[in-house]
Design a protein that fits this description.
Pfam families: CHAD. It is a single chain. This protein is of the alpha+beta class. It folds into 3 domains: 177 residues, Beta Barrel (Hypothetical Protein Pfu-838710-001); 166 residues, CHAD domain (Alpha solenoid); 136 residues, CHAD domain. 52% of the residues lie in helices and 14% in strands. It has an 8-stranded antiparallel sheet with strand order 1-8-7-6-2-3-4-5. Strand 4 and strand 5 form a beta hairpin. The radius of gyration is 31 Å and the shape is globular.
């Protein structure tokens, strides 16, 4: 039975067999076909990437009693992905358990689709649905099946809550048979009083209304009801049977409330300093979402995204430092550095291990054994680095740093006692740029940053030292951050055009920098007494990375020329004359 052939209702309560028989009428005989149970898990990653793309991934594990041909594949675990951009669904059966990463699945369309969405993120069960099914057949006097109905009782529980409160609901699904469509529609109409959202007008007069109506009228009424209740069609004020959305709502899970809106909603005339602190607070709240995954070492993205959000805050405060009092700026920068420092070692080791397959493919076979011995050493270092990070996150000092940062991100310190343990309290009582309109300061900063990118870009030649190329990369990164942070204050066309151009330029400059960083980090891993094979492998890999760095360097000039040709027309600032076009 395909989803397109099935309609369903939400019921107020689970009806017993006598109630069903009474509603169906004396001309219909109700027989039991089967009973079974299954458990479903809704899977997504910490950042709800599947949900954001309109996709639903469900892992279904049948109970041991599953023996019906209708359930078929449900004997063993299976994953089903459906939603936006997918015709029907993508399915993978015969799984021993829910996948943690996309590469836990066998090769196929489902694995390929998830790989493109999830990347290095791990999947986690978001909620659990335990289901009890009863399959019943509605037969005529001759014993022919006119319609199958499936009664489903669900127990839903969020796996994000320690207490796991359970929510109960009952569904009724209709499985019509080919050739008996009109009979099925009539029987659905008779069962209409069971619906949770049925109106009094729809119920009034039953069964009198049925007796007065002609067979053709009853069939037409039932057909209209079937169209109205098709999955995916929402009637105003009615419940939708979009399962995953229903499940999330019932369990009180709201992904949109956990994620930052993109872009952040900002007002052109709001006080710049207050806006910057509010934005930094939002990024800090996002960073803290990843702490549990860092402790559990679930996947490398928890640490990576934690650091990304800390870097966003540091970049935001650095780019807009004129909006805050000097003491407050110094306090925040110091606290953020204290929070980021203990995470650096583990992230560096993660990056090296994530590249190990690519490195092994680059090296000749004679060097691979030596590199494998280095990887074993790096994995041992990583375990120790993670243990150190766990101790840091669980320690009192980390808790005090967090409290101090949250207090410092307030427009007015909650109390000087919260800050004095780390830095001197604020002395300035009024800082004029703090109160100036946000858009005015943002556009001025953005204009200066764009001019600096063009100016530094014009100086780049084939003979320019690597350090100057790195500085250009930093300036591009600043401009990219400004466009990301303040996109809601800019025309969409400008943001999209600039981000497209900057993405290509940053990609080339980023590769150039990454190759240099990777060379230095690999050489740092070599101990003075390292085996000869290990030294040969590392030096060989460094030589190959150096060649790739040179190739990236050769692409910089053309990328700079392409970017400089793009217009950069900023809007008119709040209560200010418009900016002039930046000259390349």
């Amino acid at each position: 039975m395909t989803p397109e052939e099935t309609t369903g209702w939400l019921l107020n309560t689970a009806p017993d067999r006598n109630r069903l028989k009474k509603l169906l009428g004396k001309d219909v005989r109700l027989t039991r076909e089967d009973d079974w149970a299954d458990t479903r898990l809704l899977l997504d990653d910490v950042d709800w990437q599947l949900w954001q793309k309109g996709l639903t991934l469900i892992y279904q594990q049948a109970s041991a009693e599953c023996d019906s041909s209708i359930k078929g594949k449900a004997r063993e675990g299976c994953c089903r992905l459906q939603g936006k951009g997918i015709k029907g669904l993508l399915e993978q059966a015969a799984l021993p358990g829910p996948p943690v990463f996309w590469w836990d699945l066998p090769e196929g369309p489902l694995q390929k689709k998830l790989a493109g969405v999830l990347g290095l993120y791990s999947l986690r069960p978001v909620l659990q649905v335990e289901q009890q099914h009863q399959l019943l057949a509605c037969r005529d006097d001759e014993g022919k099946i006119l319609l199958r109905i499936e009664l489903v009782e669900q127990q839903l529980s969020s796996l994000r809550c320690e207490e796991m409160p359970r929510h109960h609901r009952v569904l009724l699904h209709f499985h019509p048979l080919r050739g008996y469509e009109s009979e099925a529609l009539l029987l659905q109409q008779r069962l209409l009083p069971l619906k949770a959202d049925v109106t009094s007008q729809e119920v009034a007069g039953l069964p009198t209304a049925e007796l007065e109506a002609t067979e053709q009228e009853r069939t037409e009424q039932a057909r209209t009801e079937q169209e109205r209740t098709k999955p995916g069609i929402k009637s105003p004020g009615k419940k939708s049977l979009n399962e995953s959305c229903d499940w999330l709502a019932i369990c009180g899970l709201q992904p949109a409330n956990e994620l930052l809106p993109n872009p952040l909603p900002l007002q052109p005339d709001e006080a710049a300093g207050a806006a910057i602190l509010r934005m930094a607070s939002l990024y800090w709240q996002q960073a803290r979402r990843y702490e549990s995954g860092m402790l559990a070492d679930t996947d490398t993205e928890f640490l990576h995204q934690y650091r990304v959000n800390l870097r966003r805050i540091r970049s935001l405060l650095s780019l807009m430092k004129q909006t805050l009092p000097d003491e407050q700026g110094r306090l925040l920068r110091g606290l953020l550095a204290d929070l980021a420092r203990p995470t650096g070692r583990l992230r560096d080791l993660d990056v090296l291990l994530l590249e190990k397959v690519r490195y092994l493919q680059m090296l000749p076979e004679a060097f691979q054994a030596g590199f494998q011995s280095l990887l074993r050493s790096v994995e041992q270092q990583r375990r120790k680095a993670h243990q150190a990070l766990v101790a840091h996150l669980m320690g009192q000092e980390y808790s005090r740093f967090c409290q101090a940062l949250e207090a410092a991100l307030q427009p007015v310190p909650a109390s000087e006692n919260q800050l004095v343990a780390f830095h001197e309290p604020f002395h300035e009582t009024f800082h004029e740029p703090f109160h100036e309109p946000l858009q005015q300061q943002v556009l001025a900063r953005m204009q200066r940053c764009h001019r600096r990118v063009l100016r530094k870009g014009r100086r780049i030649t084939d003979a320019t030292p690597d350090e100057e190329v790195h500085q250009l990369r930093i300036e591009c990164k600043k401009l990219r951050y400004l466009l990301d942070f303040f996109a809601s204050l800019l025309p969409d066309a400008l943001v999209q055009q600039q981000l497209r151009s900057l993405k290509r330029l940053q990609g080339i400059l980023g590769n150039f920098n990454d190759f240099a960083v990777q060379q230095a980090f690999l050489l740092q891993q070599l101990q003075p007494d390292a085996p000869e094979g290990q030294q040969a492998a590392v030096h060989g890999l460094v030589a190959l990375l150096h060649q790739q760095q040179r190739q990236a360097r050769s692409q910089v000039m053309q990328a700079l020329s392409d970017y400089a040709a793009q217009p950069f027309n900023l809007p008119r600032p709040f209560n200010q004359p418009p900016f002039k076009q930046t000259e390349a």
